[in-house]
């Protein structure tokens, strides 16, 4: 994989991870809600007006464009597993930004993901 291809793939991964974090920030601002027939419209409107959610959706749109460019340069069997790097990014970012737990079991899982991506990238 050449440097441009790697940049496209990693940019897509980072945009996807950023989208998840922004969606979490937006839904956290709204708080816990029960999704019932009675509150579909008010909750939907409240969620739709959250700037982080709008930003997260925008990240998804841009990530699809970047991902398409990356897929034009890299085999999908190499590119798609790279998305698992988003799990790693999100785990550490969620710990830092939202105070989510990073247990030993999660850290071991992250290590396994990183080893898998490394093996795949070198193949």
From TrEMBL:
Transmembrane segments: 48-71, 78-98, 104-121
InterPro entries in the record: EamA_dom, EmrE-like, Small_drug/metabolite_transptr
MF (Gene Ontology): transferase activity; transmembrane transporter activity
Main location group: membrane
One GO process term, biological-process aspect: lipid A biosynthetic process
Entry's localization field: Cell membrane
Membrane topology: Multi-pass membrane protein
Keyword Transmembrane helix: yes
Record GO cellular component, one term: plasma membrane
Protein name: 4-amino-4-deoxy-L-arabinose transferase
Taxonomic lineage: Bacteria, Pseudomonadati, Pseudomonadota, Betaproteobacteria, Burkholderiales
């Amino acid at each position: 994989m050449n440097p441009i291809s790697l940049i496209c793939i990693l940019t897509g991964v980072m945009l996807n991870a950023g989208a998840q974090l922004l969606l979490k920030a937006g839904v956290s601002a709204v708080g816990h809600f029960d999704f019932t027939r009675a509150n579909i419209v008010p909750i939907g409107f409240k969620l739709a007006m959250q700037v982080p959610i709008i930003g997260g959706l925008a990240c998804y749109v841009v990530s699809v464009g970047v991902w398409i460019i990356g897929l034009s340069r890299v085999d999908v069997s190499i590119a798609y597993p790279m998305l698992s790097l988003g799990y790693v990014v999100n785990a550490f970012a969620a710990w830092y930004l939202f105070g989510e737990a990073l247990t030993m079991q999660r850290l071991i899982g992250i290590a396994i993901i990183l080893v898998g991506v490394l093996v795949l990238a070198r193949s």
